Amino acid sequence: MKIGIVQIKPRKGDIQENIQTHKTWVELAIAENVDLICFPELSITGYEPELCKELAMDKSDSRLDDFQKISDLHNTAIGLGLPTNSERGIHISMVLFQPRQIRKVYSKQLLHSDELPYFAEGQKQIVWTVKNKKIAPAICYESLQKQHSENAKKLGADIYLASVAKPQNGIDKAFVHFPTIAQELKMPVLMSNCIGYCDNFQSAGQSAIWNSNGDLLEQLESNKEGMLIFNTETKEVLKKEKTTANTK
To answer: Which helix (H) or strand (E) holds 240?
Structure first.
């Protein structure tokens, strides 16, 4: 199985432009026979809590239909980050498109204190099964809380997939925490971060993959869009980057 994690620079609140960016990277991933492609936290809208009410979407939003069509056509799973509506409020979510299946939604369970005025906490950890691999999604802050990854492991996860929007201090913490849990829980950790200005901070990129021994296999730079493709059988990583520099 091949898993692609993509590092992009979302345009603030511009859903249509961000959808086009996602499609470009999905096409590149499909050309590499990737089975699952995942993007950073709130990748479709950008990480913008103050705009979440106007940007929140339903998982069935017709603007996302092309991703289902692509998934069906190429037998590829696609994970997008977006704010979703629910009866409890607005969630920070990952929506998974799988071939000829109902869209699945995972919503961030553990929110940072800065997010509580804007978002509601998700209620349940889910595990995605893609190509017979069990993948536990995690979204930013909660991925640095050990109880989250431990619960994912108890649920049978083979791979821990963190979708984040982190500044440099968050990345520094991630590069200490993720290899530790990878080694302790004996499962690879994949982290997809964005670049560019988010909310009130600069997102620091450096998306990375650690193997089940906690070894860093590969990482992207802090100022370029790119993609890492992890082969779960060979444990090798293919790195693809754009050369466009990041500007605020």
So the answer is: strand 237-241
Helix or strand (DSSP H, E) at 96: strand 89-97
User: What CATH number corresponds to the domain at position 145?
Assistant: 3.60.110.10
Structure tokens at 87: 């009866």
Give every CB contact of residue 112 below 8 A, 6+ residues apart in sequence. 140, 141
Q: Is the pTM of this model over 0.90?
A: yes
Residues 138-147: pLDDT tens digits? Answer: 999 999 999 9
CB atoms within 10 A of CB 3: 27
pLDDT digits (tens, 9 = 90+) for 113-128: 999 999 999 999 999 9
φ, ψ of residue 204 to 5 degrees: the values are -105, 10
Alpha carbon distance 73, 85 (integer Å):
28
Taking the C-alpha atoms of residue 213 and residue 180, their distance in angstroms, rounded to an integer, is: 9
* Assigned domain for 246 exists: no
57: nearest Cα among 44, 39, 68, 41: 44
Q: Residue 109: name the closest of 96, 95, 119, 99 by CA.
A: 119
